[in-house]
Design brief:
serine/threonine-protein kinase; Transferase(Phosphotransferase), domain 1; 10 strands; 2 domains; 12 helices; ATP binding; alpha+beta; 3-stranded antiparallel beta sheet; 5-stranded antiparallel beta sheet; disordered C terminus; CDK11/PITSLRE_STKc
Length: 488
């Protein structure tokens, strides 16, 4: 009985629980409703997985086809763009009232690199050592940077009080900062940074930190017992010409070249400084003021009131500096504009329509009374006689630089290629240049007799000036006996 009971129980157990083969298949006769539902659920899940897999594959195929289509379209666009003419640039020139656009074919626009913005450092980072000098557009002092110990020149911009209240920093200061930041040349003084005073609300607390050089050329010439050697003169002129050529190549006019604005260190390096009157120009030149260049170095076209000028005014100043280096004295120390013009005509001759075409059309030349070409003593330029120790090539260079006609003056690049610098004696190497005791580190430089650069104001008219008698008495001047060659 007990055995039968166990057998009945086993049979009932098998009927209520499905039986599977070892390979996972269900034995058909063991299915129940619950087993059928489970099987249907599993089948449904399997079909759902297949459907999702198929959809994923379809999406991947669509993505691949879309990428291939985009690549083909891109390649097609590139091929078509190669065949098309380049797109025109958008016109930025403002249109005139009549709907047209101004004639800009010959206009050259200047491009400037724009750096980042950052607050200026304080002038308290420098210890002032001593004052050096006062110029037309600022005060200069010698200082030492506290952190590095470097000796520098601190230039404080000179401001007109009324103007500063009205417009802030003057144009001269802004131009000087902009030009010095843009310039990078061994013969141009380097601007290290611009610093401000503690009271930043006061516009006058602006300082230019410049590299320090021990001398200015004017002081050296005044203190020298003997003039520079010919080789040293050439070295100075080459460095001056190189710096001026760099400025002119970058569309910059200095407009105040003179010996007191040329700095010299104890390594024989000359650098152009004081850019208070410098400015950018273009082609064609913009409207420029005539109140430029210190009187003793001012070109005749400026004295006669020209309204347009360019690089030749700087080259006239270079010629005056050349002569001053030779003699250690200013070439044309006129007391006023008329006196300076008189000295120019006595040295360079009277201008004529042949030597200076169109000079009579200058504003201040209309009413001038000039001696005739045949007047006694009017022998033309006497530059060669004024500088007898200068070679023929040197005299030709100086005569060209001091040409009354601006178009006849050589450019700075032409000057550097002149025969004068190729003749013996050759220019002395900078390392062999003589040194001079520095006064900038000991005391304030004494004031030079050179007049200051012109300030702002109304341009003075010369009026009716009579130059007809400037050569009177020249034919009675004493002359050396000289000599003559005679064929025997």
């Amino acid at each position: 009985m007990l055995q039968c009971s166990r057998d009945n129980h086993s049979i009932n157990h098998y009927r209520t629980h499905p039986i599977f083969h070892t390979n996972g298949e269900q034995i058909p006769w063991a299915n129940t409703e619950e087993d059928a539902a489970l099987e249907a659920k599993l089948k449904k899940e399997k079909e759902e997985k297949k459907r999702l897999k198929a959809e994923k594959a379809a999406r991947a195929e669509q993505e691949r086809q879309r990428a291939a289509a985009e690549q083909a379209q891109k390649q097609q666009d590139e091929e078509s763009s190669d065949r098309r003419p380049p797109a025109k640039r958008r016109k930025l020139t403002p249109e005139r009232e009549d709907g047209g656009i101004g004639d800009t074919e010959d206009v050259k626009l200047l491009r400037f690199e724009i750096g980042g913005w950052a607050p200026s450092r304080s002038v308290e980072n420098y210890d002032k050592l001593n004052d050096i000098e006062e110029g037309s557009y600022g005060w200069v002092a010698r200082a030492r940077e506290i952190k590095t110990g470097d000796v520098v020149a601190l230039k404080r911009l000179k401001l007109d009080k009324d103007e500063s209240m009205r417009t802030g920093l003057p144009e001269t200061g802004l131009r000087e900062i902009q030009i010095l930041k843009d310039c990078s040349h061994k013969n141009i003084v380097k601007l290290r940074e611009v610093v401000v005073g503690e009271d930043t609300l006061r516009i006058e607390n602006i300082f230019l930190v410049l590299e320090f050089l021990e001398h200015d050329l004017k002081s050296i010439l005044e203190d020298m017992p003997e003039p520079f050697l010919a080789s040293e003169v050439k070295t100075l002129l080459l460095q001056l010409g190189s710096g001026v050529a760099y400025l002119h190549d970058h569309w910059i006019l200095h407009r105040d070249l003179k010996t007191s604005n040329l700095l010299l260190n104890n390594r024989g390096q000359l650098k152009i400084a004081d850019f208070g009157m410098a400015r950018y120009v273009g082609d064609p030149a913009p409207k420029l003021t005539q109140l430029v260049v210190t009187l003793w170095y001012r070109a005749p076209e400026l004295l006669l009131g020209t309204k347009t000028y360019g690089a030749p005014i700087d080259m006239w100043s270079v010629g005056c500096i050349f002569a001053e280096i030779l003699t250690r004295k200013a070439l044309l120390p006129g007391k006023n504009e008329v006196d300076t013009l008189t000295m120019i005509f006595e040295l360079c001759g009277i201008p004529t329509e042949e030597s200076w075409p169109g000079f009579r059309r200058l504003p201040n030349a209309h009413s001038l009374r000039l001696p005739s070409k045949n007047a006694p003593g009017a022998t033309g330029a006497v530059i060669r006689a004024r500088f007898p120790l200068l070679t023929a090539a040197g005299s030709a260079l100086l005569t060209g630089l001091l040409s009354l006609n601006p178009d006849a003056r050589p450019t700075a690049k032409e000057m550097l290629q002149h025969e004068y610098f190729r003749q013996d004696p050759k220019p002395k190497h900078e390392a062999m240049f003589p040194t001079f005791p520095s006064k900038a580190g000991q005391e304030r430089r004494r004031r030079h007799d050179t007049p200051n650069a012109p300030g702002r104001g109304q341009v003075a008219s010369l009026g009716a000036v009579d130059f007809s008698g400037i050569f009177a008495g020249r034919d009675k001047e004493e002359r050396g006996g000289g000599f003559a060659l005679r064929m025997v």
